[in-house]
Structure formats: C-alpha cells, structure tokens
Design brief:
Beta-Lactamase; disordered N terminus; 17 strands; about 55% helix; 15 helices
Length: about 625
C-alpha cells in the first residue's frame, strides 16, 4: 500500500509556493529597506540633537559674554578709571537697574582689596574683602584680561557665575591696570531659555553643566532649584569623560530606560551643553514608518492570498470533483456520482481513466456483494448453531461440576462428620461420667468445673461446625409449604435465644404476603444472619437487630436483617458469600454460603449493604405466591 505520509491539499501546496515565490523577495527587500530607513532616521535624529547642542552652546557663551562686555565697557569709562568711588557707584547702580541677572558688583584696587561693593541683597555697609592671590583678581590683572568662573549657588538654590575684567588706564603708555571690576551674575536666564526651547510638553530635555558635574541650567527649572542638583550618574559619567568637542549616542540608565543624548563643549568656558530624549521618542518616526510598511505588507499579503486561493481553486476544482467521486466509489455509492468534467489536458485524461475504472469497479463490486451476502447467511447459520451448542455444553458442564463438587464435599462431610462425631460422643460420655463422680465426692474443685464447661462448649462448637458442613453439602428436594411471611418470622424469632444486651426491632409490612418455602432451610438461613448480627454487637455495649419485611415490587417480598455493628469493609464485602471464607478467628466460613444456597434454591436473591462504623443490612428477596 502506498504511503500517505506526504499527502496534502493541492490547493494549499499551490498557495504556499505561489506566496513563497511572489512575497518572499518583496518581504526581504521591504525588511532591508526598513532597516536602512531606521538607521538613516537615527543618524538624522542624532545629528539634529548635536546641532541643537552646538546652537545652544553658542547661545550660552553669548549670554555670559554679554555681561563680560557690559563690565568691560563700564571699566573703560574715563570717570570709572579715576577710581572715584562716588562715580563708580553711579555706574554700578545703573548696571543693577538695567541687568536684573546681576546680583552683586565689586571694585578692587590694584592690590586686590575691595574698595566698593553693592548688591541687591546687601546691607548699607557691607564688609570689604581681600582677593589678593585669588583667580578672580589675578585672572583679570593677568595676560588673559578677564575671569569667568567661580560657580556657586546663591542662597543654596540659584546658580551664579563670577565675572571680572581689569580697569585699564589708557592714558599710560602702555595701558596700565589700576583695578578690577567684578560681578556675580545669576544664570537662571539660561534655564528660562532652555525651558522655552525644550518645553515640558515635549519629550526632549536639555542642560548645561561643568566638567565636575555642577548643574548650571536645565530645561526643567525645578531640577536647578535642588541643593544637590546634578545630572543622573550614568549621563554625568559619559559627559565628564568626553574629549571631543561634540558627539552623541545612546545612554542606558538604571531600570532599563535608554536615552539618545548629544553634547557640545563650550571650549572657552569649559562648560558642556547636553540635549536628550527617550530612545522611543527619538526613533518614533522610524517606528511609525516601520508600522506603515508592515501595514502595507499585510494588505499585499492578504490580496496575494486571495488571488492565490482563486487561482488554486480554479486549478484544483476538477481534481476535487474527482476526489469526491472516488470517495463515493470507495463507500460503494455508484449512483448519483458528481459530474466529472473532461477538459482537454492531463486532468481530462485522468477523468476519462477514472470513468472507465468506476464502471469496471461497479460490475466487480456487484459480484462481490452477492457473494458476501451468501457468505453472511451461511456464517450466521453456523454462528447460531455454535452458540446454541456452546450454551448447552457450558450449562451441562457447570451443572456437572457443581454436582461433582457438592457430591465430593457431601461424601467428605459424611465421612468427616462420622469420624469426628464418634470421638465427640465418647468425650461427651466421659465428661458426663467425670461429672457424676465429682458430684458424689462433695463440692468439686472450681477449676475442674470450669475446664469441664470449656470441654462441653468445644464439643458443642465442633458439632455445630459438622452441622454447617453437612447442611451446605447436603442435596435434597425442597419441602415447600405456603406460609404468611410475617407469621413465620414471628415464630422463628420467638424461639431464638437473643442475649440480654441485644434488642430486637420487628417492622413488618401490613400486607403479610404468602410465600412458598422450605421452612427448615429458610429458618437456617434467617438464624445464620441473625446470629451474625448478634456476634458483631458483643456485650456490654450490645446493639439492636432489626428484622423488616418490605414489598419492593409486585411478586416479591424482601426480608431485611440489619445490625448496628462495625460494618464490613468494601474489600471484604465481595467475598463474604464464598464458601469457607471468614474473617472470624473461629468458624467454617459456610454460614453466608448456606444463606445464598438456600435463597438460590428458592429462586430468590441476596443483597447486602454495609457502612463501616454504622452497620450491615442483608436483604433476602423471595418470590411470593397467590
């Protein structure tokens, strides 16, 4: 038989190869173009951020040099060079009025000692300071002719920078520095300009900082007002270790967040301008373009799939019709076959061959069906004969085995009973003789009396065992008598020796139906069940035995014998009616076997229900009679 492991739908195969040939190159090229576009957009975004950083570095430098130029122009005035404190104070007050970013102004003499000091937050007579040897004085008096530095936080919040320029006496040849004018300038204006350029509603942020991490300005002014204002450690580490004038790239922060940052160095101030935005925002355009291309590809794929399905369906339609016709032929349906189209191609040739094959198959199948019907008739006849003979043989065999087994047990029981009862009778007579002799000699010894009773009890027990074996193995015809079931039970229970610790509850159906039973055998069955119930409720606790009659359905009466003992475990319950099976320390295991034999002999049945810890109920079903 040919292997069907590689069998598949032809339309799906055509669709697969059509998609592979048509879409694979397009998807590959599209993916490659998306990658190139993303790289280009990333480079463009980084270049834009570098451009912003460079542009704001120029703005920052111009912002600072504006105040330096104001000081230079003021220091070059002839009245100011005269070092007249009154004139100088007038000019300095004018600077404070015009430039609100200037917080404090000072004039130093050629020794570096402060001779004039005014400010927005100074008292009327501020202390004068000596700056001799400090860079604020030496830088302005030296070859550089200026000093821009000494970054501090005014009142612990606002960043400020100190600027100083020399006071040159142009009358001397060459010009001679006769002092220094210095200003403490607030840099809050830089943060204001950054906030306007990079508003909080946008994704980008910018900052100005020194190489030692001092945060000068930030597009979010709240960052500046913190006493310990600094950039994140990862950003600070990258910026403070750069040797290039400008640059940029991705920076990874703690928690997995990534930034795209660019920087530009303000070389003359040794400050750094930094611009950043989240990587997601920086590459948003690339992501949008990628998503748009994917959407286009999805529509192309869907259109191609639909077109491929249409083409594949057109190609495979005749083959599907042939397959449907072949399936019906395989099921033996030779009528109402679908109309096979014979086109002028290889599929048409296949259709012609199929039609010829179907006619031949129809003829051969008819012959096989007729032969099969004849064979089935003969097979059914043989099966019936075999089943009938098998049942008869099995019934005869079972009956023979049963009779042989009971005969063997009966023969064995008769021999054993005879051979054991004779010694028991001798022992019983001997006990009687011993008791007689002991009675004539006065009061017998208590221990001897006790052991005599034990011997008598054991003799009685042995006789009981012999009786059970003989009862089970005895085969005799039933001596049937019609009795009222309630009356008969009253008679049986009235002579049963119930111990004082066991109570009896009788619940009889008022109908009191008539049954036809062998009173001797049925009495033995009831006494066995009652005796078992008494045994499982020993003194002193005792319990109650319940005898009930019920009519479960017309034609039957049920005798329930229930006890309040410990119950029978489920694994034991299925074995209790087997001959010689017992869970007692002593006993033959024939009591319940006798019960089943008696009930079966009366064409009834026995059921048992038991719950561990609650009790057991035996149910005897006996057919009633009119």
């Amino acid at each position: 038989m040919a292997s069907t492991r590689n069998r598949g739908k032809l339309a799906y195969k055509i669709l697969f190869w059509f998609l592979l040939i048509s879409l694979a190159p397009m998807i590959f090229v599209g993916w490659h173009l998306v990658g190139i576009t993303q790289q280009s957009l990333r480079k463009e975004t980084l270049a834009m951020q570098e451009s912003l950083a460079v542009g704001f570095s120029d703005t920052t430098y111009k912002y600072v040099t504006t105040f330096r130029n104001v000081l230079t122009e003021t220091a070059g005035l002839e009245d100011f060079v005269s070092m007249n404190p009154g004139k100088q104070q007038q000019y300095l007050n004018r600077i404070l009025q015009i430039h609100f970013a200037v917080l404090e102004l000072s004039v130093l003499n050629d020794k570096g000692v402060e001779v004039l000091r005014i400010g927005r937050f100074l008292g009327p007579n501020p202390d004068m300071r000596d700056f001799k040897g400090e860079e604020l004085f030496t830088g302005a008096m030296g070859p550089r002719g200026q000093f821009i530095g000494r970054l501090e936080r005014f009142q612990g919040l606002y960043p400020t920078v100190t600027i100083s320029v020399p006071i040159l006496d142009q009358r001397a040849q060459p010009a001679k520095a006769v002092g220094v004018v210095a200003a403490r300038v607030s840099l809050n204006g830089l943060s204001t300009m950054l906030a306007m350029e990079f508003p909080a509603s946008g994704k980008s942020q910018a900052a100005v900082m020194t190489r030692d991490g001092f945060l000068i300005a930030h597009s979010d002014p709240r960052e500046i007002y913190r006493p310990d204002a600094r950039m994140p450690p990862e950003v600070e580490k990258v910026l403070t270790t750069q040797d290039n004038v400008k640059g940029g790239g991705e920076i990874a922060l703690e928690g997995g967040k990534r930034l795209l940052g660019a920087f530009a160095l303000i070389d003359k101030l040794d400050w750094i301008v930094y611009v950043q935005q989240p990587v997601e925002a920086a590459y948003q355009t690339a992501a949008d373009m990628k998503a748009q291309i994917f959407r286009v590809l999805i529509w192309v794929v869907l259109f191609t799939v639909l077109l491929s399905l249409a083409v594949a369906g057109h190609i495979t339609q005749p083959i599907r019709i042939l397959k449907e016709a072949a399936d019906r032929l395989g099921k033996g349906q030779f009528e109402d076959l679908p109309e096979v189209v014979t086109t002028n191609d290889e599929i048409g040739d296949l259709a012609q061959t199929f039609l010829g094959m179907s006619e031949s198959l129809k003829e051969k199948t008819g012959e096989l069906i007729h032969a099969k019907q004849e064979l089935e008739k003969f097979t059914k006849f043989l099966e019936k004969r075999v089943d009938s003979r098998t049942r008869e043989l099995k019934a005869a065999q079972d009956e023979l085995i049963k009779k042989e087994r009971l005969a063997a047990i009966g023969q064995m029981a008769s021999v054993v009973g005879h051979e054991i009862r004779n010694p028991l009778a001798v022992i019983n007579n001997s006990i009687y003789f011993i008791k007689t002799k002991l009675g004539t000699g006065g009061e017998p010894d208590a221990k001897i009396t006790k052991h005599i009773k034990i011997i008598e009890s054991e003799i009685q027990q042995a006789n009981g065992i012999i009786n059970e074996i003989l009862t089970y193995s005895r085969q005799r015809e039933l001596q049937l008598e019609k009795v009222r079931i309630n009356d008969w039970l009253e008679e049986v229970l009235s002579v049963y020796p119930f111990p004082p610790h066991v109570s009896v509850d009788k619940i009889f159906d008022p109908a009191n139906p008539t049954v036809e039973i062998d009173k001797t055998e049925m009495q033995q069955a009831v006494r066995n069940l009652v005796g078992n119930g008494v045994e499982v409720m020993p003194a002193p606790k005792g319990g109650k035995v319940t005898i009930r009659t019920v009519i479960p359905e017309p034609g039957w009466v049920r005798i329930d014998i229930a006890d309040a003992g410990s119950g029978i475990p489920q694994d034991v319950l299925d074995k209790i009616f087997a001959p010689f099976f017992t869970t007692k320390a002593r006993g033959t295991g024939l009591g319940l076997a006798v019960v089943r034999k008696v009930v079966d002999h009366h064409k009834g049945k026995v059921d048992v229900e038991s719950t561990v810890g609650v009790g057991t109920t035996f149910k005897l079903y006996i057919p009633t009679t009119a």
